[in-house]
Amino acid sequence: MIHETDLPRWQAKIDQIGAAAASDEDVTAGWAKDEVERGARNAELRAIVDAFLGDGDLSALRQSVDEWRQRPGAAFDGSGQTWLNQVARHTPDGDTEVVRALQDAVRTPRSIAESVQKIDTLAQVTEQLTPRGGPQVGRIPFVLSAFWSADDSDPAWPVMWSSAPQMMYELGWLRTWSNRDRWPQYVEAARDLCPGQVTRFEHLMTYLAEHKFVGLSPHLASVCAEAADLMASYTRGTGYADDSTAARAESLAYQLRGELGLAANGLVSDLNTRLGRQLRAQPVDARIEFSKTGAFRADAYTIWAESDGDRVPSLRLWVTRSGVAIGVHAYGENRSDEAAIAARVASKLPEGMTFFQLQPHLSGDRLVPVDGYQSGQVFAGRWWPWDEVPHGLELRDTVLDTTEALIPVFDVVSARPESPAIRENAAVDDLAALAQRFRTDRPYPNDKDAWHKDERARFAEMLSPDNLVVFDLDLFRMLINGTRYGGPGPQSVLNTSLSSMNSIALDEFARNIHEILWGAEPVATRIDRALDWEDLGTRGLGESVLMKMFAIVDPDRFLPAFPLTGPRGKIAMLRRLGLPEPDLGLTRGEQHVAANDTLRGRLEPLFPEDPWGQAQFAYWLLENDVEDPGPEIDLLGRAASELFLPESFLKEIEELILEKGQVVFYGPPGTGKTYVADKFAAAIQPDPDRRMLVQFHPSMSYEDFFEGYRPRTDEAGQMSYELRRGPLALMAAKAEAAPGQPHVLIIDELNRANLPRVFGELLYLLEYRRKWVRTAYRADEPFELPANLYIIGTMNTADRSIAMIDAALRRRFHFVPFVPHEGPLSNVLRRWLKANGEPAWVASLVDGVNDELRGLLRGTHLLIGHSHFMVAGAGPEKASVLDDKRLRRIWDYGIYPMIEDQLYGKPEKLSDFTWEAVLRRYGPGSAPAAEEQEAVDAELGSDDA
């Protein structure tokens, strides 16, 4: 049911669309004419239905409907006729099951529930009729609704034209992509929003599909306000107060996204004409961050930019609970860079326009008009409180006039150099608020933090002046090699030096450590002496180990942040906090001490007497975007377009991976599993350093995948062993360091390895994130899989059936099938062929051969994937790449050998799959090719067909 609060809002939107349509006399005249003609057509269609109910003649039904639909006002299009043609052509003579099912289906149902039952029954009996798995079931709601709408029933049934539910989806009123699931919601909306005039609802949705922008919804302010109120119950890391609140917040966010998405697409052409630009409209995601418990937006905006980058300057139409803004938006590299941008903007800003201060997402009201630039992202333009916002189509001219006036501002912002990926020198305005966010997001402190602090105390006792007299080499190795109280990095050289020492040398080493840590000289001097091999130093004893020891024995002064330089060094932390760096004229020891003291002085008030918390916060700042701009671009939508897949399919995968943390894509070779995994991973995490792909093979081991000891030879040729991290341990460390960022590990060919052997005790962690286990090589050190590390496996069913996967492992993954011409993959090849101007019959050839292989091989594990034919170099403005020579080569050297292997010893069957044989059955001039072209001409079916 439509939410009671949404009903008046949606009704106002319907009225707004109607007002826009009423301003076009040609449109309203066309609708009036259509109503008259449709009345006559309905009586004719009911006569056709009555005849079919009497004689059950499918061929006659098909022919009668085909003739009828050519008449003016007939509610039936080419895709519906194609479905009916397929049913009639492929129903075997004497097959009464299909006839009875269709006869029952065309009888007008008495309720929505009964209509759904009729759709499901008809889908079950028709989906296996043709070589490609049956007439496309996604067209059934349209076909049946056309018959039902002709009946003079009360309440009336609307026709489910493809544009109507699609526009409901774009408006955010629908969240499903299957026509079967959309149908009941579509009927309810048509009846509730246009009572007694369901055909008007059809017309209005069709009009909106052609004229995306009709103004902003009159009730958009109340949508923002309700969403902001719900956000008040949101807690970072936990989510909303309950599931119903989260669901409502999601619904409102998608309605906001839908309104502004229609504005972005509906105005971009007019903007480009008026401004003489080539702007692109870019959608904005509904969540403010990629997380299962992430908050949903309580504001929305368009993005019109000259490129697809996620931090490029843009023109924006922005709505909040307080009002509407049109302006120029730009990111800065850091605080000083943003101030410089703002100064350039101020010099060009037209009279009557203003800067806006961007508030945090969780404030619920993002924009505050201010007299002058203050800080943060730069956004400047014109502001209207809601009671002053132009109504309906009047807003179009306002947007065009305002953006034209802002072009000098946009030009001065767009001309600046691109910002590098890493923002150095970033100052933090409200460090206390960020510290609180760190405590929530990470979260801090947890049990593992307590363990680190306990280990510090243990090491401090070992390094005390008294205990250094009896040096504990084993415990010292744990200090330098592990991650207890921070990891100093690989220490193979120091390990080699220690291994070569006899008891006398070890005593000397212990005395030097005593002098370094407890000597009378200044700390900086002792550090410099320790770095000198001819003084207190030892080969391999570097800065990180030295600073870790000082952090252990003197926690009141030193942070467990060990390197001085590098991306995770103390200087990087100083830059991130906007603090002065040590003078390069100082010695190395003096620089370490100066950097440490400056950091400690700034962080101590935030984490009193907690050096571990201070260092963890500083590392968190380095790894996370603390200004929280939110994901600006709908990267999943862009990936779906590139992959020729429904965006809703990628959204479903997103929900699955957020739910369990790991998914498996399984299916025959050539179905794009790895390619989709890679594109999906890039969509949820654009930073390539936070993504990794590893391929399993039969000899893959736990040591290869997670961690294990590996030999290493030092400069002197001496061999030692060091504990080396594998892909999973590396990605886990990165994810733990940046808890606010998703990290993705793709495991290609998952089922080629002995999975219980490779995963070992990690199998437990796949299900219980944030739990600890003791691993094989670090039995005394807890290890956990961070919740923000997501795993995508791909599994080729031609190599091993998924049934052979260990049951315990299988229940820890969601399994997503990649089967040719089924579900979301059903039209990938067709879409690609159409988009690139390649021959349509190739799709029907692949479907036909796959249907034969399904029967011969008793399953889908070795069907032909679409990627064999999606070759590089294709394009709508280029000559066809899939010419006869290329197609033969693909078949003879890529597909036929696979079929030959499966049909070994069956030459009589194998001969049916040579290129010449399949070309005769399915190539140009064949019945399937003609049917394929007919479907293309009638327009490609719906996404879920």
Can you describe what's shown?
The protein has 945 residues and is an alpha/beta fold. Helices cover 50% and strands 9% of the residues. The strands form four sheets. The protein has a six-stranded antiparallel sheet with strand order 2-4-5-8-6-7.
- Oligomer state of the chains in this structure: single chain
What is the topology, as strand order, of the major beta sheet?
2-4-5-8-6-7
Supply the number of helical segments. 39
Reported for the largest beta sheet, the result is: 6 strands, antiparallel
**Beginning-to-end CA distance, first to last residue:** 25 Å
Write the layout of secondary structure elements.
Elements: H1 6-22, H2 25-55, H3 58-68, H4 78-90, H5 96-106, H6 112-126, H7 140-149, H8 163-171, H9 179-193, H10 198-210, H11 220-231, H12 243-275, E1 280-282, E2 300-301, E3 303-305, E4 314-319, E5 323-330, H13 335-348, E6 354-358, E7 367-370, E8 378-385, H14 394-405, H15 407-414, H16 431-441, H17 447-462, H18 473-481, H19 492-499, H20 503-518, H21 523-530, H22 543-553, H23 570-577, H24 588-603, H25 611-623, H26 635-643, H27 647-660, E9 662-667, H28 673-684, E10 691-695, H29 702-705, E11 707-713, E12 719-725, H30 727-737, E13 743-748, H31 755-759, H32 762-767, E14 789-796, H33 807-810, E15 814-817, H34 828-835, H35 841-857, H36 884-902, H37 907-910, H38 915-922, H39 927-937
Parallel strand pairs: 9-14, 9-15, 10-13, 13-14
Antiparallel strand pairs: 1-3, 2-4, 4-5, 5-8, 6-7, 6-8, 11-12
